[in-house]
Amino acid sequence: MPKTPVTVIGLGPMGATMAATFLEHGHPTTVWNRTAAKAAPLVEKGATLAATPAEALAASELVVISQTDYTAMYDSLKDSTHALKGRVLANLSSGSPDELRRAGDWASGHGAELLTGGIMVPPPGIGKPGSYVFYSGQEKTLDAHRETLRALGDITFVGTDVGLAMLYYQAQLYLFWSTTTAYMHALALVGSAGVSGEQFRPFGTALVSALAGDGPMGYLRIITEEVDSGLSPGADNTLRMQAVGAGHVVEAGQEAGIDTTGPTALKDLFWRAVDMGHGDGGLSSVFEAIRAPAT
């Protein structure tokens, strides 16, 4: 049976790969980009280049948007809002949750419906095994276009609040960036003594794997349980002890001559939780300082 048509607005690395993926799955694909020349490789693959945003909107009920931010969407469509009526805008651009909520109001004000999404892979991973996308908005709308959008990756619906997809997306990004940056700091720390990255990597791999596991070092599980329960027993490994240890990590970095911005921020966060009265609790007590930021 004929595949559902789709329009892609924004042909940066993400958008261009999305459009190519839709084409590979047999969907008639219309594209538009502020710099039209970027569409040439896609046109060679069978895409239709729209001359204007209004023409792009008219081509498909489902319009996938992948731009730098939501401001780019407004700038691109400001002269074509008359063509938004009846369209489903699946915007996979980055922004803040409240920004997405305002965009939902903007879309509905022009007779369109907004689905927000956070795609959790870089461009080469789009549509490949392991690719997944957080979506929020009206689930019935997502269901109507689920088969088309599945080409980009597995679909995880997180709720009707259009800001939720970006909360999940930003949370995952922060977890990724902070973990990988901490690993780079670790490599710099041991590297100051001539230890190669490959010598240290097995220990980093073992630790990260253990944190995600169900064993006694499965701290993602442990912290989740303690945060959800509101209980953080310190026992023989109190937060105060770990705050002292965090100070030693800073000192080691200073002695090694490497940047200590990250470890210092971590140490300060630990001590702020201690000063709030959580020194005898466990590591998960830091959550109280995180959700009650310093003024």
TrEMBL record:
Q: Which UniProt keywords apply?
A: Oxidoreductase
Query: Which molecular function terms from Gene Ontology are attached?
Result: NADP binding; oxidoreductase activity
Q: Where is the 6-phosphogluconate dehydrogenase NADP-binding domain?
A: 6-156
Q: Which residues form the NADPH-dependent reductive aminase-like C-terminal domain?
A: 161-291
Identify one Pfam family in the record: RedAm-like_C
Q: Does the keyword Cell cycle apply?
A: no
Question: Which family is this protein grouped under?
Answer: Belongs to the HIBADH-related family.
**What is the protein name stated in its UniProt record?**
NAD(P)-dependent oxidoreductase
